[in-house]
């Protein structure tokens, strides 16, 4: 099982991410190369990066399974403001360069939001932008994330994902990241996961799946909301998620948790404790822990 969570990329860069992943008992991880919302980026510190590679080796974390997530401000779908559109293209190209420097193979991307233009035009904008970015010979694969369909998000149907892939010139540099919360919220029933995979295989091809974001959902099937819940504490439930994680067809695919931090009480809005160590443990044990929230609080309070 290759499992980890999203982690921060702080002062120590990749080294900080590896240390955090190890503290959760993870054997992979996903990181942003800076705050997801903003665009301030420091140059990659190669000394820390080399130390990170060594620490990964010592802890059986294969760099080939590590995932980067592109920042949210990148929107390749809308080109009404040409300056913003070009900024997004250049910024993503730069993020890919940084991944290359760190030997990271995959970058997950939200396809974008159409905001005020027709969806089919938005789809063509994304394909055009991706082809521009991929023109430069590189080794990093862009993984299109399946989205919940909140607002005007593109990529919330398999048809849209397929359309994008069909229009990419360098198919060897494109892939898909499934997000179980987003799929549920988009209307794909995760309780019939075999059916879903069959449909995915017929339309797109299972070989395109390179990462799975493992999240429970706070909302009902087809809600188009995108609110993640802790594993086993949402509408999907523990067994449905475990079935996806252990699915033989997704065996060697990295699974990444993006579940919410928890607070001192159940309705505490200040989310301070990371759940990942406990969620990973629960998943490895194959047994739901109904006391997980308290276990987490106790562990980190000390
Ligand atoms: Fe995402
Ligand atoms: Fe996700
Ligand atoms: Zn989400």
Description:
By secondary structure, the protein is an alpha/beta fold. 38% of the residues lie in helices and 13% in strands. The chain contains ten helices and ten strands. The chain has helices spanning 14-23, 46-58, 82-101, 119-135, 158-166, 180-186, 193-203, 238-245, 276-285, 292-301; strands at 3-7, 28-31, 67-69, 106-109, 141-145, 174-179, 209-214, 216-217, 228-229, 255-257. An eight-stranded parallel barrel has the order 1-2-3-4-5-6-7-10. Strands 8-9 form a two-stranded antiparallel ribbon. α4 (119-135) packs across α5 (158-166). The mean pLDDT is 96. Zinc ion binds next to α6.
Core attributes:
alpha/beta, binds fe (iii) ion, eight-stranded parallel β-barrel, 10 strands, 10 helices, 302 residues, single chain, two-stranded antiparallel sheet
Question: How is the secondary structure organized here?
Answer:
Layout (H helix, E strand, L loop, with lengths): L2 E5 L6 H10 L4 E4 L14 H13 L8 E3 L12 H20 L4 E4 L9 H17 L5 E5 L12 H9 L7 E6 H7 L6 H11 L5 E6 L1 E2 L10 E2 L8 H8 L9 E3 L18 H10 L6 H10 L1
Parallel strand pairs: 1-2, 1-10, 2-3, 3-4, 4-5, 5-6, 6-7, 7-10
Antiparallel strand pairs: 8-9
The structure holds fe (iii) ion (FE) (2 copies) and zinc ion.
Q: What small molecules does this complex bind?
A: fe (iii) ion, zinc ion
Q: What percentage of the residues does DSSP assign to strands (E)?
A: 5-15%
Number of strands: 10
Cα separation of the termini: 30 Å
Shape: globular
Low-confidence stretches: none
Tally of helical segments: 10
Question: Whole-number radius of gyration?
Answer: 19 Å
């Amino acid at each position: 099982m290759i499992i980890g969570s999203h982690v921060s990329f702080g002062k120590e860069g990749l080294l900080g991410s590896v240390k955090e992943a190890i503290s959760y008992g993870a054997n992979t991880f996903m990181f942003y190369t800076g705050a997801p919302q903003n665009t301030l980026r420091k140059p990659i510190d190669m000394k820390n990066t080399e130390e990170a590679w060594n620490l990964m080796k010592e802890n059986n974390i294969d760099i080939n399974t590590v995932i980067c997530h592109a920042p949210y401000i990148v929107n390749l779908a809308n080109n009404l403001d040409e300056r913003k559109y070009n900024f997004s293209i250049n910024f993503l190209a730069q993020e890919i360069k940084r991944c290359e420097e760190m030997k990271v193979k995959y970058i997950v991307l939200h396809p974008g939001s159409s905001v005020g233009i027709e969806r089919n035009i938005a789809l063509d904008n994304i394909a055009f932008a991706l082809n521009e970015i991929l023109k430069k010979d590189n080794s990093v694969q862009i993984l299109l994330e399946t989205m919940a369909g909140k607002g005007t998000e593109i990529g919330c149907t398999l048809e849209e994902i397929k359309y994008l892939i069909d229009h990419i010139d360098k198919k060897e540099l494109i892939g898909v990241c499934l997000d179980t919360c987003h799929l549920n919220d988009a209307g794909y029933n995760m309780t019939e996961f075999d059916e879903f995979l069959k449909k995915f295989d017929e339309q797109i091809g299972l070989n395109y799946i390179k990462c799975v974001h493992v999240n429970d959902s706070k909302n009902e099937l087809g809600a188009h909301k995108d609110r993640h819940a802790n594993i086993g504490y949402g509408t999907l439930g523990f067994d449905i998620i475990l079935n996806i994680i252990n699915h033989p067809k997704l065996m060697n695919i990295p699974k990444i948790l993006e579940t919410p931090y928890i607070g001192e009480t159940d309705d505490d809005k200040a989310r301070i404790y990371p759940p990942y160590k406990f969620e990973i443990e629960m998943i490895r044990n194959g047994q739901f822990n109904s006391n997980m929230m308290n276990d987490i609080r106790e562990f980190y309070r000390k």
